[in-house]
Amino acid sequence: MTTPASPSPTATPSPSAAYSSSAPFPGPPVRVGLVGAGPWARTMHARMLAAGPETELTAVWARRPEAAREVAETYGARAAASYDELLGSCEAVAFAVPPAVQAGLAVTAARAGRALLLEKPLGPDLDSARALADAVAEAGVVSQLVLTKRYHPATRDFLARAAGLEVTGARSCYLHGGFLGGDLATAWRLEHGALLDLGPHLLDLLDTAAGPVVSVRGTGDPRRWIELTCEHAGGAVSQASLSGAVNLPRVRTRVELFGPGEELVYDTAGLDHEECWPVLRAEFAAAIRAGRSTEIDAGRGLRLQELLEQALPR
């Protein structure tokens, strides 16, 4: 799952808050079913999909029926009695569940011909991620990753500017204290740590901004602090510091690129992450109607999972 950037993940804003869009969407809204009813499902997936106009939240299914019913009623959807019922009510499925759960259920949805809105990482390990990516490719369905930062205009501006740079080295960090307690201190995060949860974000940015990563190695404990060293195809070397178990007043995400020219810095401290969701929703719906995934798809998720596997401390 993606780590929420907002400081109040338990709040459930109005479905229309910060999600309205005045741009006309060609054709009827995409009917999306949601799997999961936890804090991230409530505060991001459900309200984003229900806000439209590009999507319509049709049904919610979770292992806890009462939780699914609460989310569904809040956003004008219905609670599905089973996963099969959910699949029968929609043309796309969004997942807001732990990686091990997503990896299995998403394969079933792909084989049923449903488009997929997937969390990162794709699965708890490389084998499960590859099985999911293979199922998506074999079924020919549209897929898209919730790599939150990729949908913010500031991130896209940073990556566009980075494309014109000669990068010699880079350093980056993604740090917060969410694993110390609260909604983010979930079982899978506490087991796997920051590498699987936060690593996809930084590896995606470094792989895109500094050139394709050809090797990565990690040191430390992913449950406390892990340091990654990446070598890039163009000769650049980068560092990434990851932790979800440090006491900070707010999330700290930063990427610095260095080379013969001026440094280029990307910092999320001043970004409003609410700007990401309308972009994500619109691009997912447009990809479904066009029958063609964006570059941020299950294939990209598999690429990141391969890097995560390399980075595991041995």
From TrEMBL:
The record's Pfam families line, in alphabetical order, gives: GFO_IDH_MocA (PF01408), GFO_IDH_MocA_C3 (PF22725)
Q: Where is this region: Disordered?
A: 1-23
Q: Which SUPFAM superfamilies match?
A: Glyceraldehyde-3-phosphate dehydrogenase-like, C-terminal domain, NAD(P)-binding Rossmann-fold domains
> Residues in domain Gfo/Idh/MocA-like oxidoreductase N-terminal?
30-143
Tell whether Manganese is among the UniProt keywords.
no
The coiled-coil regions, if any, are none
Q: Which InterPro entries does the entry mention?
A: Gfo/Idh/MocA-like_OxRdtase_N, Gfo/Idh/MocA_oxidrdct_glycsds, GFO_IDH_MocA-like_dom, NAD(P)-bd_dom_sf
Q: Where is the composition biased (Pro residues)?
A: 1-12
What positions does the domain GFO/IDH/MocA-like oxidoreductase occupy?
Answer: 185-259
Top-level taxon in the UniProt lineage: Bacteria
Recite the UniProt keywords alphabetically.
Oxidoreductase
List, as start-end ranges, the regions of compositional bias called Low complexity: 13-23
Q: What is this protein called?
A: Gfo/Idh/MocA family oxidoreductase
